Amino acid sequence: MLHNVRDLSPDQRLAIESLLGRALRDEESLIRPARVLKDAPSGAERTRSFRQYLVAAGADVLCVRDRHFYDPAVVAFCRREDIWIMDDLTLLELLAVKP
Question: Does position 27 have pLDDT exceeding 70, yes or no?
Answer without folding.
Answer: yes
